Input
Amino acid sequence: HVRSRRQRQMCIRDSNDGPPAADNSSTTFLAAAAGEVVATAIVRVARAIPTLSALAVAAANCAANARAHHS
Output
């Protein structure tokens, strides 16, 4: 009787500590998946930079031409 009460108390105490920690394999898997997502995003941004730079230059040239024609 005393033993089962102690086990219940420990169970209640443990349930108040929040969710159990993930085991190492789950943590490793999630870290690898997150790393892949970040790496893919970095590659996509790096590929887009030349296009964005070209668009910025074209917009600046267009604005300069518009100012020159209105002066």
Observations:
- The longest helix spans residues 24-70.
- The chain is about 85% helix and 0% strand.
- Residues 11 and 40 are 43 Å apart (CA to CA).
